[in-house]
Amino acid sequence: MLLNLTPELLIANLIALGLGMTLHEFAHNYVGWKMGDPEPARLGRLTLNPLVHINWIGWIMFAVLGFGILGSAPISPYRMPVENRRWRWLAAVAAGPLTNLLLAAVVALITRIIGIEILFSDNLLGTLLLQTIQLNVLLFVFNLLPLFPIDGWHIVYSLLPPDLAMVWQRYQQASSYVFFGLLLISFIRLPGLPNIFGLLITQPTVSIMRILLGL
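Predicted structure:
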């Protein structure tokens, strides 16, 4: 991303990611609180103020390089009521990426009403609309990967029956090694070594964008 970054694109990325990640983390916190975890309210996370949610160094890294740690939500299944705990946790964890998809869908609908040709015009509005859709679909797809510590790992954990969930949790650390290994490969780009993250994320992202925009 760095090689093709223009001031216009940088501004669009910063706005799109700031909006997407604020809503993502707010959704985690709000649904986690509704599911019985008091910690988000105690820490003042039930707000749409981006200053509360975003890791600012990671936000800039993501806008410039295409990857960065953008925030975290202080939610835990162990502070939720025992009754239906796994489904409560599933709702709280899934809320983040689903919010990104919803935001992308709303912006795509607005774009279709305006006319999708605006996406191909050389102006900040078109770039902002395109990047808001693209980056939020990307965040949705990325966060569904079943690798620790991202949301997809927790979603699978919640969906598994208790015995298989225990096995899944046993390999949590190994899963994190796979995650960071794949991340490293995506940055090094060694000859002959496929960018697995690219394969897992790029095509689904493009396909979902085409559906949302009616292309």
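Summary: The first helix runs from residue 7 to 34.
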